[in-house]
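Lab notebook page, bench 4
Experiment: in silico fold of construct C2
Operator: M.H.
Input chain length: 141 residues
Purpose: comparison with the prior construct
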Amino acid sequence: MSFELLGDPDWLAVVVGAVAYFVLGAIWYARPVLGKVWMEAAGIQMPEGQRPSAAIFAVPLVGSVLSAIALGMLALSSGTDTVGEGIVLGLVVGVGFAVAIAAVTATFESNKPNPTVWGAVNGGYHLAGNLIAAVLIAAIQ
């Protein structure tokens, strides 16, 4: 594998995967879904009705794009081009990297009221996001 693959992924598939990953985060962390649980586990208090600044969405958007690019490169290099293969790729990346990193990070977040729940919410989001993005990328390319 080389960085030459960066020019080869189906960029439409990468963009669709990135947007889906990002939109999932907007839903996942919405207060009625898992946002309230996540905030309580993290010790974050935001008054009801107050919304975060628009700037807080920039980092997750960039992260979603970078993840989708990496998934596009991995899909291309591994020949992943069916929904079934996308599921496998999404699970491998989601569990092998995202969940593993979230678990390790949560272990050392002793300043949070409930680091286990905080890590589970984050890890679950990244597992689902990688899975959805990988399936979309595989199906489109």
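Observations: The chain has a mean pLDDT of 93. Residues 3-140 form one domain.
Next step: discuss at group meeting.
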